[in-house]
From TrEMBL:
The lineage of its organism: Bacteria, Bacillati, Cyanobacteriota, Cyanophyceae, Acaryochloridales. The keyword rRNA-binding does not apply. It comes from the Bacteria. It holds the Pfam family AAA_21. The chain crosses the membrane at residues 153-172. Residues 26-303 form the ATPase AAA-type core domain. The keyword Cell inner membrane does not apply. GO terms for molecular function: ATP binding; ATP hydrolysis activity. This is ATPase AAA-type core domain-containing protein. It comes from Acaryochloris marina (strain MBIC 11017). Keywords: Membrane, Transmembrane, Transmembrane helix.
Length: 563
């Protein structure tokens, strides 16, 4: 079951009719504090009634359910009601000739931070219930339970924690665990209560997902309050991997996100022993989840939703003042207006276009949040074209996740003339100041890779010389990078200083590439024509030998920016 659309009004902060949709697998609710994001999660919770109510003959695609605020939402106004319409996508699990059947609802007014909704079709009834994060005792029971439900469940839990935290936490069906790879003389098993809180919550969350028979909907309220950005990114990437792992027709974006996790599983996860072995999905593979709803202010989740654009939706919440009249409803008497007042009502819209408007709405500043994870500084546009293509080819050849320009990295051009003007300064003091201003360009991002041509030629005396007019700038940048690198900064320098064969980026090209476009063309159109001529069979090894090592270092560095 998937929720397709929610139409609501007169519930919590929602006044006039609001439509939230079309909903996708991964739904991010973004907006300033007090705009009603959590209220939407509470209303989705409200679809599961604590008191039991059978709604006869409701169209599963567009049911209309009366929702009494006084009984269900703690309102002091006894007879005020709202209308909630929920549209569902097609439910393939229904075993029957029609979708017009009885639905059983449960509702729970408790409001924990982590909440799970489990939908399971049985016969002609749709049963749903809520489950909170389990305590340690329940966690042990869940671990025992999942070992009987799926062969890969415990290894999936262990791998999930390895992917998220980069450390081995090996859980056993008795609920105990070991940290680190087990050896015959290894450490004793430890109680779950000894886990760090972040690891424990992620472990309980993954276990709760794995023990569901059906396809649950997951609700999160501001996970950034408890988890660091790196953990949030990896947690949701892993959850998404669980969602699409058995899917046969993954979209391009789904495949890229899938490969981020799968490549770690294939290359870094041990295969020996039952506690590590993960069985590949089959055609009967169970999808552990159908939908995720997250209320958040985290730019990490905005980034993730943008990366998963075909599968994810972002909804922007705002609060607007509106003049309203308050009424008292009575079953046997007339409707009586009580008072008029100004109220702040929640409005919702699907966010489209540039994501920068979302950051503006949250009050994010450029100094608070960088909109790309790192900058590759190049001399001109032709360098961008070649390096972008080579990075993609390298990732495909090595079966690594693709790096997305604009998210994982972006290009900035400095131009040789800038370096030239700096090196030609006659005043030594102003020259130093100007060079330091050049280094200030790295304030665009604390992660940087600078690509510099060596412009190396061998003189009549047999020594290598830099034929350019800005050798001083190159030397200064190299020195500054060595200092920053020694301090552990995520920076890199692509500078074949002593290689006379590679004096410019174009020297990496092979003869076939050079023949694909006349040398009389300007650099940018020539680079476009050359790269478009490369077939899918083109390999990095076809180019000059030093390119492979430069790409390895560049890819590794950019991957660290996005870790």
């Amino acid at each position: 079951m998937k929720i397709k659309q929610i139409e609501l009004g007169r519930l919590f902060t929602f006044g006039p009719r609001q439509v939230v949709g079309p909903l996708k697998q991964f739904n991010i609710l973004i907006g300033p504090n007090g705009t009603g994001k959590t209220n939407l999660l509470r209303i989705i919770d409200g679809l599961q009634f604590n008191y039991r109510k059978i709604a006869k003959s409701i169209d599963l695609y567009q049911p209309e359910i009366p929702f009494n605020l006084a009984d269900n939402l703690g309102s002091q106004d006894t007879n005020i009601s709202g209308i909630l319409r929920i549209g569902y996508s097609q439910v393939d699990e229904l075993d029957g000739p029609t979708l017009d059947k009885e639905i059983l609802f449960e509702y729970d007014v408790k409001n924990p931070v982590w909440r799970y909704i489990h939908g399971d079709v049985q016969g002609f009834s749709l049963k749903t219930h809520l489950v909170n994060i389990p305590n340690d005792l329940q966690f042990m029971k869940d671990l025992t339970d999942i070992t009987h439900r799926a062969e890969s469940a415990l290894p999936l839990l262990n791998f999930g924690l390895f992917f998220i935290f980069g450390a081995h936490f090996t859980f056993y069906k008795n609920g105990r665990f070991t940290q680190g790879r087990m050896h015959p003389s290894g450490p004793d098993e430890i109680e779950p209560s000894a886990l760090p809180s972040g690891v424990r919550e992620c472990a309980k969350l993954i276990t709760s997902i794995l023990r569901r028979n059906g396809k649950p909907v997951l609700l999160f309220d501001e996970p950034e309050l408890h988890l660091e950005p790196r953990v949030i990114r990896r947690l949701f990437t892993f959850i998404f991997w669980l969602m699409v792992r058995g899917k046969q027709d993954r979209t391009t974006k789904e495949e890229e996100a899938f490969c981020q996790v799968q490549s770690i599983l294939d290359t870094k996860w041990p295969s020996e022993g039952d506690k590590f072995r993960i069985v590949p999905p089959t055609q009967q593979h169970i999808s552990w989840l159908s939908q995720i709803f997250v209320a958040s202010h985290s730019p990490v989740l905005i980034n993730l939703a943008i990366e998963l654009e075909e599968t994810a939706a972002i909804f922007e919440f705002s609060s607007n003042e509106t003049e309203v009249t308050r009424y008292r409803f009575s079953e046997n008497g007339p409707v009586k207006p009580l008072e008029q007042y100004i109220a702040c009502f929640t409005t919702v819209r699907e966010a489209t276009g540039m994501p920068s408007s979302l950051l503006d709405g949250l009050g994010a500043k450029g100094s608070d949040l960088l909109q790309t994870n790192g900058v590759i500084w190049v001399e001109g546009p032709s360098d961008c074209i070649y390096i972008r293509k080579w990075l993609k080819m390298y990732a495909i050849e090595k079966n690594l996740p693709l790096l997305v320009p604009g998210i994982h990295f972006d290009f900035q051009m400095y131009g040789g003339s800038l370096l030239d003007s700096i090196s030609l300064s006659e005043d030594s003091l102003s020259d130093t100041a100007a060079l330091e201003k050049l280094v200030a360009m790295f304030r665009f991002s604390r992660n940087a890779l600078v690509v510099i041509d060596s412009d190396a030629v061998r003189g009549s005396d047999g020594k290598l010389k830099d034929k350019s007019k800005f050798q001083a700038a190159k030397t200064f940048i190299k020195t500054e990078f060595e200092k920053a690198e020694a301090k552990g900064q995520n920076i890199g320098l692509w500078y074949p200083e002593k290689d006379e064969q590679i004096s410019t980026i174009e020297n990496y090209l092979d003869a076939e590439s050079l023949s694909a476009a006349p040398s009389s063309l300007r650099k940018k159109p020539r680079a476009q024509r050359i790269t478009s001529s490369w077939s899918n069979d083109k390999k990095i090894s076809d180019f000059a030998e030093p390119l492979a090592e430069e790409l390895r270092k560049a890819y590794t560095l950019i991957a660290q920016w996005n870790d």
